[in-house]
Amino acid sequence: MKFPKFELMNENNEIVSHNDLLGQYTVLFFYPRDNTPTCTQQACMFRDIKDTLKSLNAEVYGISGDSAKKHTNFINKHDLNFSLLVDEDYQLSEQLDVYKLKKVFGKESKGIVRTTFILDEQNEIVKRFDQVKVKNHMDEVVEAIKIAQA
């Protein structure tokens, strides 16, 4: 299945589109919010496997509803080595069915459910991970890319 066409702003207020992803494998991870414990852990884990992803001709982007300014602060605070994309209106998140009603600490509200997509060089979705558990996720991502490239 083809990943939808999109144009989102990154932390530097530059437009990143589906066309920028062509020619390489891409990991797009949707996460609820910058600077929350699990989201920080996940982002730092992607930071730490960046060289492994690069060796697999794969780029990584994080996507949340946070602003470019919040993304910049998050990147600087945790030395992240990849771009974060802004989906403030949740248009792409809704299109991909990752913006849903969820329960956090007994309270229901709409938000992004932690989801990762792996795209091939033509922006075809080769793997989708729903309701991601961060602990072993990096191993799952690397393995899925290797399988897709085999």
TrEMBL record:
Keyword rRNA processing: no
Active-site positions on this chain: 39 (cysteine sulfenic acid (-soh) intermediate)
Reactions performed catalytically: a hydroperoxide + [thioredoxin]-dithiol = an alcohol + [thioredoxin]-disulfide + H2O
Enzyme Commission number, as recorded: 1.11.1.24
GO molecular function: thioredoxin peroxidase activity
Function: Thiol-specific peroxidase that catalyzes the reduction of hydrogen peroxide and organic hydroperoxides to water and alcohols, respectively. Plays a role in cell protection against oxidative stress by detoxifying peroxides and as sensor of hydrogen peroxide-mediated signaling events.
Membership in a protein family: Belongs to the peroxiredoxin family. BCP/PrxQ subfamily.
Name of the featured protein: thioredoxin-dependent peroxiredoxin
Keywords associated with the record: Antioxidant, Disulfide bond, Oxidoreductase, Peroxidase, Redox-active center
Quaternary structure and interacting proteins, as annotated: Monomer.
Transmembrane regions listed in the UniProt entry: none
Residue ranges constituting the Thioredoxin domain according to the UniProt record: 1-150
Top EC class, one word: oxidoreductase
Family annotation (SUPFAM superfamilies): Thioredoxin-like
An example Gene Ontology biological process: cellular response to oxidative stress
GO CC entries: cytoplasm
Gene3D superfamilies, per the entry: Glutaredoxin
